[in-house]
Amino acid sequence: MLKVIISIGYIWGFILIFPLTSQAVTVNPFFGNNMMLQREKLVPIWGSADQNEDVTVTFAGQTKTALPDNSGYWIVRLDPMAANANGQQLRVQGNNTITFANVVIGDIWFCTGQSNMEQEVQAASLQHDPAQEAAMAQNMRLIRISSGGNLLSQWEELSPDSVGAASAVGWFFGKKIQSELGVPIGLYKCARGGTPVESWMNEESISKIVNEPDISPDGTFDNKVLGAEYANKIKPYMPFAIRGNIWYQGERNSKTNYATETYSERFMSMIEGWRDDFETGDFPFYWVQLPRHFEPGFPTIREQQRLSLQLLNTGMITTLDLGNTNLHPDGKDDMGSRMADLALAHHYKVSNKAPMGPMYDSYTIDGASICLKFRHFGAGIVAQGSRVEGFEIAGANGEFYPATGAIDGDEIILQSEDVSSPTQAHYAWLPIPEEFSIYNSEGLPASPFRTYGPQLPDDVFRCAYSGFEGYNEDAVIHDLTDCINISPDP
Questions:
Q1: What letter does residue 417 receive in the DSSP assignment?
Q2: pLDDT exceeds cutoff 90 at 435
Q3: Where does 287-392 have alpha helices with state H?
Q4: Cβ distance 327 to 292 under 8 Å?
Q5: Can you spell out the DSSP letters for 52-89?
Q6: DSSP structural state of residue 484
Q7: How far, CA to CA in Å, does 280 sit from each of 18, 274, 338?
Q8: Residue 469 main-chain phi, psi, to 5 deg
Q9: What domains are there in the chain, each with its CATH number?
């Protein structure tokens, strides 16, 4: 009995002298000094703490308090705030206090995809001077992650080093947005070379494809683990509030036939999964249609990327006229700038410029001619150099021959002396098309297409192309949210 009493007394004495410590409050590692928070949206702040510990977050005149759940997870949501380039202090207080300095409010864009999104401003082949780029910009914040999924830095202000390591496409996109809008812009570089779209899908999207023929029993596609990039680089930082995402990917999926033909289905599933997990609605999602490069699957991937425009609040830039034909082309500044023009017109609605180039709609046959109808913004379709080039037509036998053409309003009329009864046509349907002559009046190239492949539904054109100068449809939808309930014209 004496031994028991002594033992109990020893334990209580130990507790009195060395009290048990509570779990320190922590925040998700995506938050830090110099960070940016998303304007005009609810802003989640989250982390972990002791279950019985109230956590209070104070920022910009707001105070929000949360009690952790049984696992210690806590989250608060700041009310929507206006853009503010003046750095402020954000404080998180529980049993301990965490303070972040120089926090600004603006628009945050994720920059995701393969190596062409990963390629840095300082890459020698791009010939940009990071110091000069940093000096010409203002009110931007940058953060990036390693290939393995570790944050390489906390949020950084502009410097030659931070700009040099930024995504080149992302940088030139963000710099133009900031210059045009005057609000702070934050960029998260989140890309990895050689990754297929399947690596970026969430768990629900993966569950839909695990039994398809190109998916291995071990949960890999082309030796890449399904969902690995999503799990390492996207999911840990959800539900961080963002403005939108830009994407440059598709090269890896062009190497296998099944993945090429199913790319649109999987890509759209990936986008929808991200939108669900971010809990911030159908945020803008824009991508680069693959440029010219000698890979046999590129024409089909470009088509699949065009078909993905049927998702609400998406957009695509065509890049046949940009960069060289290397797998990692130059011209990333032009790509980023074109992507910014798309966002400024389509999402921000501060520009009447055409967001995208002409898109094929439908065709009719008139004797020896095949007449192609296009949908477009701007004042109309034009042929660069005044010659319609890049088209081939075929009859029922499927043998294609070069065609001559003429522009008639929204139509291009094609003929060939080698095809007396045309039934089909295609345009720029090569990995490296040498001829691609069709643009809109504002200089944006038409997307490659084929008449005998899958097509976008009519209502997509009415949704995505409405509300811009030169739009020539009778039924114009000015609010993209209305597009969900639109049916094609009878």
A1: T
A2: yes
A3: 298-307, 332-346
A4: no
A5: T--EEEEETTEEEEE---TTSEEEEEEPP---EEEEEE
A6: G
A7: 45, 10, 25
A8: -55, 130
A9: 105-346 (3.40.50.1110), 359-456 (no CATH), 458-490 (no CATH)
171 band by pLDDT with thresholds 50, 70 and 90: very high
Q: Are 151 and 29 in contact (CB under 8 A)?
A: yes
| Residue 224 dihedral angles phi and psi, to the nearest 5° | -115, 135
Query: In which band, very low, low, confident or very high, does the pLDDT at 20 lie, cut at 50, 70 and 90?
Result: very low
User: By C-alpha distance, which of 299, 288, 366, 301 is closest to 331?
Assistant: 288
> Cα separation of 403 and 387, whole Å?
11
| Cα–Cα distance measured from residue 471 to residue 435, given in angstroms and rounded to the nearest whole number | 27
Residue 477 in tokens:
């939808």
- In sequence order, the 6+-apart residues with CB closer than 8 A to the CB of 10 are none
H or E stretch covering 287? strand 285-288
* Greatest extent of the chain over all pairs of C-alpha atoms, in Å: 112
Indicate the burial class of 227 (C-beta count within 10 angstroms; 0-12, 13-18, 19 or more): buried
Predicted confidence at residue 460, as pLDDT, reads: 66
Gyration radius of the chain over CA positions: 26
Whether the per-residue pLDDT at 443 is higher than 80: the answer is yes
Cβ neighbour number for residue 283 with a 10 Å cutoff: 20
pLDDT 10s digits, 261-282? 999 999 999 999 999 999 989 9
